[in-house]
Design brief:
Number of helices: 3
Radius of gyration: 33 Å
Helix content: 25-40%
Shape: rod-shaped
Strand order of the largest sheet: 1-2-3
Largest sheet: 3 strands, antiparallel
Length: about 150
């Protein structure tokens, strides 16, 4: 029999919004935070054992509480869960496009390098490995110098 145990804290990024569920907070709550509008903030824990608050601090130094916890372990777990999601980051459309374009340019450079190596060795793209050695036929004598000469 499986017991449905839910995590005390769940946090994830949905687009540019951070969504967190704090089941161990008093009261339990779901928090939504727009990361696009609030791009400059600090996540912080304040308070004493038995009355800890997880919140955000604005650039002006104002603390805005999000959730209240009775146990230090619950507050630390909530802080780490939110921190983990924030640290993952999300590339913007422009940054993702640049990464994709950079990968494409790198792939084209590698393909060009391989093609140049093939042409430098006497191979055209799509050609089979060929030898410049003379064709040896049964019963037709050839001088050794002609057979053993290096390729051009």
């Amino acid at each position: 029999m499986f017991v449905n145990r839910k995590k005390p804290v769940e946090a994830k990024r949905v687009g540019s919004t951070l969504v967190a569920i704090f089941r161990a907070s008093k009261p339990e709550l779901i928090w939504k935070f727009d990361l696009e509008r609030n791009h400059s903030f600090t996540l912080a824990l304040q308070g004493d054992e038995g009355d800890l608050e997880l919140g955000v601090t604005s650039p002006k130094g104002e603390f805005y509480p999000i959730a209240r916890f009775a146990a230090r372990e619950d507050a630390d777990e909530a802080f780490l869960a939110v921190q983990k999601v924030l640290m993952k980051g999300k590339c913007s459309r422009a940054a993702c496009l640049l990464k994709w374009a950079g990968g494409l340019v790198l792939l084209l450079l590698i393909a060009t390098f391989v093609a140049a190596l093939m042409v430098g060795r006497g191979l055209g793209v799509g050609q089979v490995w060929s030898s410049s050695a003379p064709v040896i036929q049964n019963g037709v004598p050839l001088p050794a110098d002609q057979v053993l000469q290096p390729p051009p």
